[in-house]
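4.2 Preliminary Data

To establish feasibility before requesting continued support, the project team ran the inverse folding procedure on a target of 427 residues. The structure was first converted into the token representation described in Section 3, and no sequence information of any kind was made available to the design step. The complete token record follows.
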């Protein structure tokens, strides 16, 4: 089946791609609007599409045409306004991983969500500017995560929050939690994993782990019974000064840090893809020993190349003489992509070392020479290599500058920067 992720550029979209990209049941497509070369999904997906903006008057017709041309079976919306749009779209042959329209619209507003769930879950107290007791917490009525939220401690900050028409909520000083959930097509809760948001940045959990919080689990079960959200969803809670968990928001989509739950054994996007494809599912057992720390990942795109010339010592092999696992993966990736590879080294025992260390022999030639500029000139002539289509990976700065002087168009990459070589996109 062909799956389309939209938008693909944000944390939820990237998590859906990572969750589905290795399944042999789904071909993953995706796209975003106006991100140009700065969408990391471009490097993750072989099938990346520039999408129309969802506020454009002809969005529906253009998006429907795109889905038809790509023969898309399943659409994963990855941002709350897009979830709401997709919940209302009807395209022949296409299923949208979204809840009923009334639920999608409800969850766009925190105020409306609190009103609906008052008495079902513990919702925060809301204040007017006249009744506000400082400190309090100001946040947008629409939007997810902690973006645009801040603590109000002074009358001046209260005036700013009032002008911004922010929700004025009770201040909750305790720990924050996310509950990753998936429900069946009838809205029956199949699985919920409570995890603590121990470190937060860019509105997502950067450090998280599963925890046992019976009260939060009880509240989530009550929310599931009240709203009957179909498919993937999550709820966020924060504890007040008394240690009671208070609901912050509910979102009917995949969360960016559902990565933790996937690494712990339960792949919610994949389960949702099977559910919305009409299959029965069984949820695997969760491993509760996982601690996830998320950090920036480098996905790089440079000018095209056809050849890679490798050094051996301190490049293919680490400084302890063992194969570098990241570089070994790169060797295979380049081979899969049809890039041609050579080895140029000073090590006179190169072939024996490669055999002993079980380095994959993807090299069209192994050249041993003390004169790397001269040897590279001979290699390029022998194999008919245009130097501007060649990248050399070499750790030595002493060797780098003679090579740069001899070959101004040669791109030289050090082992710490092999992300420059890119990677094969998911199909």
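Position-by-position output of the design step:
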């Amino acid at each position: 089946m062909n799956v389309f992720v939209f938008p693909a550029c944000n944390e939820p979209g990237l998590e859906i791609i990572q969750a589905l990209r290795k399944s042999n049941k789904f071909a993953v497509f995706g796209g975003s609007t106006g991100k140009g070369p700065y969408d990391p999904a471009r490097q993750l997906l072989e099938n990346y599409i520039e999408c129309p903006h969802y506020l454009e008057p002809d969005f529906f017709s253009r998006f429907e045409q795109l889905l038809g041309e790509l023969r898309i079976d399943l659409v994963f919306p990855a941002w709350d306004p897009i979830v709401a749009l997709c919940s209302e779209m009807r395209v022949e042959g296409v299923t949208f991983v979204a809840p009923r329209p009334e639920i999608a619209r409800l969850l766009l507003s925190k105020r409306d969500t609190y009103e609906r769930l008052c008495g079902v879950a513990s919702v925060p107290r809301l204040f007017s500017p006249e009744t506000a007791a400082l400190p309090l917490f100001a946040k947008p009525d629409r939007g997810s995560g902690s973006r645009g939220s801040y603590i109000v401690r002074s009358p001046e900050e209260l005036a700013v929050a009032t002008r911004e028409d922010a929700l004025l909520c009770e201040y909750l000083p305790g720990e924050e939690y996310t509950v990753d959930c998936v429900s069946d097509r009838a809205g029956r809760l199949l699985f919920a994993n409570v995890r603590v948001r121990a470190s937060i940045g860019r509105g997502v959990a950067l450090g998280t782990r599963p925890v046992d919080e019976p009260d939060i689990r009880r509240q989530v079960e009550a929310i599931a019974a009240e709203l009957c959200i179909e498919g993937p969803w999550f709820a966020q809670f924060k504890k007040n000064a008394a240690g009671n968990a208070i609901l912050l928001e509910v979102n009917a989509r995949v969360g960016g840090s559902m990565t933790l739950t996937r690494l712990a054994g339960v792949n919610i996007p994949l389960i949702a893809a099977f559910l919305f494809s009409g299959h029965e599912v069984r949820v695997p057992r969760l491993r509760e020993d996982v601690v996830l720390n998320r950090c920036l990942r480098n996905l790089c795109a440079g000018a095209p190349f056809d050849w890679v010339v490798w050094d051996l010592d301190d490049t293919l092999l680490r400084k302890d003489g063992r194969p570098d696992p990241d570089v070994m993966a790169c060797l295979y990736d380049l081979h899969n992509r049809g890039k041609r590879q050579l080895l140029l080294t000073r090590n006179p025992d190169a072939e024996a070392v490669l055999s002993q260390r079980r380095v994959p022999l993807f090299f069209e030639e192994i050249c041993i020479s003390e004169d790397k500029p001269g040897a590279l000139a001979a290699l390029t002539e022998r194999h008919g290599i245009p130097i501007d289509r060649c990248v050399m990976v070499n750790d030595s700065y002493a060797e780098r500058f003679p090579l740069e002087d001899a070959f101004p168009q040669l791109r030289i990459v050090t082992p710490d920067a092999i992300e420059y070589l890119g990677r094969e996109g998911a199909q």
